[in-house]
């Protein structure tokens, strides 16, 4: 069984639903989202085996609060699992219109499938 959660590394949208364009794109791709934004916190290092960041900025924010205690948690970027652009940043679709949201969806879909395959490998 897998437990998956999502959190932002900033506090801009805590308690809000995803961007309406994200919801629209997800629904068009057969995904129903029911999630309110929360901020990534130190406790996440203890609650999860993998912490996956979208970009270098997220990685820096995550690293800044990582406890010094030796933990059994893997921290890496989402596109570590993307065979097309390994370890690249996932671009923020905010200014990319509908095409940008679809591009990010496809990146995440591809990367998540490869991550899942590695987990069950």
What report would you give on this structure?
The chain has 121 residues and is mainly alpha-helical. The protein has a domain at 45-120: Response regulator (Rossmann fold), CATH 3.40.50.2300. Helix content is 39%, strand content 7%. The chain contains four helices and two strands. A two-stranded parallel ribbon has the order 1-2. Helix 1 (20-28) crosses helix 4 (97-120). The radius of gyration is 15 Å and the shape is globular. The mean pLDDT is 95.
**Number of continuous helical runs:** 4
Kindly name the structural category. mainly alpha
Averaged pLDDT, please?
95
Say how many strands there are: 2
Question: Mind telling me which CATH architecture of the domain at 45-120 this is?
Answer: 3-Layer(aba) Sandwich
Strand content: 5-15%
Q: How is the secondary structure organized here?
A:
Blueprint: H1 20-28, H2 44-47, E1 50-53, H3 56-65, E2 74-77, H4 97-120
Parallel strand pairs: 1-2
Q: Which terms would index this structure?
A:
121 residues, mainly alpha, Rossmann fold, two-stranded parallel ribbon
Can you summarize this structure?
The chain is mainly alpha-helical and 121 residues long. Helix content is 39%, strand content 7%. A two-stranded parallel ribbon has the order 1-2.
């Amino acid at each position: 069984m897998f437990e998956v959660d999502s959190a932002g590394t900033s506090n801009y949208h805590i308690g809000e639903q995803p961007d309406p364009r994200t919801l629209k794109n997800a629904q068009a791709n057969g995904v129903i989202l029911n999630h309110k934004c929360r901020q990534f916190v130190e406790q996440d290092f203890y609650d999860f085996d993998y912490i996956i960041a979208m970009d270098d900025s997220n990685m820096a924010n995550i690293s800044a609060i990582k406890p010094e205690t030796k933990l059994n948690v893997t921290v890496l970027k989402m596109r570590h699992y993307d065979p097309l652009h390994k370890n690249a940043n996932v671009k923020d679709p905010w200014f990319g219109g509908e095409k940008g949201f679809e591009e990010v969806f496809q990146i995440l879909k591809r990367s998540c499938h490869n991550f899942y395959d590695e987990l069950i490998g």
